[in-house]
Each structure stands twice: as C-alpha cells, then as structure tokens.
Amino acid sequence: MKEIKTTDFEKEVIRGGKVVLDFYSTECPPCDALAPKFEAMSELFGADVKFFKVFRQENRELAEKLGVSSSPTVLFFDDGEEVGVRLSGGIRRSELFEGMKCLLGVEKVKQVKKAIEPQETSCDVAILGGGPGGLTAGLYLCQAKTNTVLIDTALPGGQVATTHQVSNYPGFIEPQPGYMLSHNMSEQTKRCGTTYKVAVDVTHVDLEAKKVIIDDFETISAKKIIISTGTSPNWLNIPGEREFKGNGISYCATCDAKYFVDKEVIVIGGGNSAIEEADFISKFASKITIVHQFDKLQANQQAQEKAFANPKINFLLEHEPRSFKKDGAKMIVEVEELKSGIRKSLAADGVFIFVGMKPNLEIFKGQLELDQWGFIKTNEDMKTNLNDVYAVGDVRSKKYRQITTAIADGTIAAISITRELGQ
Length: 423
Known about the structure:
The protein is an alpha/beta fold. The protein has helices at residues 9-14, 29-45, 60-65, 93-104, 106-114, 132-143, 178-192, 241-244, 253-256, 272-281, 301-308, 403-420; strands spanning 2-3, 18-24, 50-55, 73-78, 81-88, 119-128, 148-152, 195-198, 202-206, 211-214, 218-227, 231-233, 249-250, 264-268, 287-292, 313-317, 319-327, 330-337, 343-348, 350-353, 357-359, 389-391. The longest helix has 18 residues, at 403-420.
C-alpha cells in the first residue's frame, strides 16, 4: 500500500489493473477508523490488487474530477473502469470485502476469508456503543488506568451526532452543533486511552462469558461489559414506509434537510424531536406540514411557541398517516382524520418521521431483564441482572432520556466498575 498524487493517477489507477483507492483527510475520525481496516485489506489481497491512498486536501482537482465529496471515500477500479459501490463515512470491514468481490470474484474472497487467523483481545472493560453514556464511561475508566475497549457498529457520537443543535448542554452559552459536541466527547475519550473498535460488524455477544465477536474474526474478552447501544427511530409500519426509506422518507433532519431547499416537506410527529427538527428543516424548506395524532403537541412549551410563530410551519392535528406513495418525484401521504375517519392525500417533496425511539437490543435477545417497554432494568449502580454487565444511556429503563442523564449513567457505571476492580 502506498500514497499517490494526481500526477500518478493515470499510471497507477487507469493503467494499473485492479486497484482500490482511498481518499482520506486529516482530522477525520471516519478516516482514522478506516485506516487499520484498509491496511489489513492490503495485506490480505495485496498479491492481486493494488491499494493506494490519496490525500484529498492536496489533490482536490482529482477528487472533484471523480466526484469525491466526502472523506473517506473508497473506490474500486478494474482496468481503469470504476466498479462496485463507492464506500464513504463509517466504512465497515464487511463492505470492503464486498468491494473485493467485484474485483476478484466471490470464490477468491471466500478463500481469503477462510485463511484469516482468528484474533483474540483481552481487556478489563468492553463498552458496546459510543454515545454520550459510553464515551463518558470510557473517559472515567481510562483516567482510572482501566484497560477499556469501545465497540460501535457506527462511528462514536450516537444520536447527538445527528442533532443539528444542542442548546441545553451545560457549559456552553451558545447552542452547539450536535456533531461537534459528539466529536469533542469522542476525541477526549480516545486521547485518554480508550481503544476504539468502530464501524465494525458485531457478530455475536455472549454476556455471560463476557465475549464479543466483531467482524467474524476478532474475539474481545472482558472482565466487565457496559451496554450503551442507545435507541433507533420507531417505524410507523404502514404501506410504503420501507419502500421509500431513503428515497423520499427520512428519519434525520441533520442528514437530509439540506436537500429540500425551497421545497415542501411533511413532518410526522408532535414530540420534542418532531417540533425541534421541523424548526431546523424550516431553514431550508419553503413549507412544512406537521401531522400529529393528538389535538395538542407533546413537545416542550418553548419548542411549541417557536414552531407556532414560524410562518413556514403548518399543523394538521388529530390526523394519522395511513400509507406512502410516489407520484413522479412527489411523495403522497394518505392521512386519516381520526374523529371522522375521512382520508385525504397530501403531496410533498419529502417526509420526515419522528415518532419516538426503540432500544437497540436485538443482539442481546433473551439475555437481559427488561421493563414493559423493552428497556434494560438496572440498579442505581447501573448493574443489570447479569453479573459484571452494566447498562447506561437511552437503552436503560428510566424516566428521562437526555444527553446529561446518559453522561450521568456512564459516570456512575465507570466509578462502580473501577471500585470493584480495585483500581
């Protein structure tokens, strides 16, 4: 694996046979997360494929020519032609293997994977999930000189990273962009000494044995485990929702609002997330219609007042969506007036859904004691029903779910673990 520049592109890539190209940037957490995976791939497939890195900031013209607009971005070339799917953001090892299949074929990749020797890593504490609760736990544990590994299927930050602004986090006079707040938390924990295993596939978790298998080849054994897997947006589970997810329907305003400049948008929901994100979307969209099932909004009073005062935001209360369809580029939302049962269709350029969250616990099925809503029960030290297994953040059963409450959970779990380990 070597680094090339724009002047090398013709020779090394266009006339280079089978090539994998990584456009990276400095001060880029996703790039840092990709680097060891990319190097490992070059060691596995280097005899048949050339692996090159391109420093995007110093090769902007080449990046623009190839349509590379984010870091990292990985491209696959075969005899000068781009093949497969471009990868960007939090790139997983499994995605790189899929790209290699386009260059070498399925059977060759299978042979290489079979020859990979299993790897084992031991630590004091394994943290599953890199939201505020997990990051705080990692920070406290590493300050106590505890060998800690943080594992996340995405990049650290959790839901905060997709929140456009955070106005109630102590210590900041002005509202903070969510991605920067989560980035700063992550960097602080990483620099303290926590080992990161991020943008990985978690293959199996045995909470009794305290073993976590990632990417099908590395087993991480710990003395104690902290579950900080957070929550994911709820689905409405109505016709058309899954079909048009990512193609007209979104669950993240920070990610997608920018694509609706001067367009009309429908927001489903009436809680804090729906109303606060509708306000953010109004910075781009020309008109927003909020569809909510009750006769009053459930958001906090400040958020409501701001929304009611926003001339771009309209309200359709006591209505529920029943289906999603498409008419050309337009999304068609069929809604039902709950009092009369009358249905009508609303047209918009896009739909955002904010109807609550569910705990990310699929991989632990049957291993933990849960409350009636499916969240993990813990005691005041964040201990679950299993020995040496803790839960923190939004995944835990509790009354309030905020960044500050997740941080408090992480602090308590870390201090409790440190004392039990005698450190």
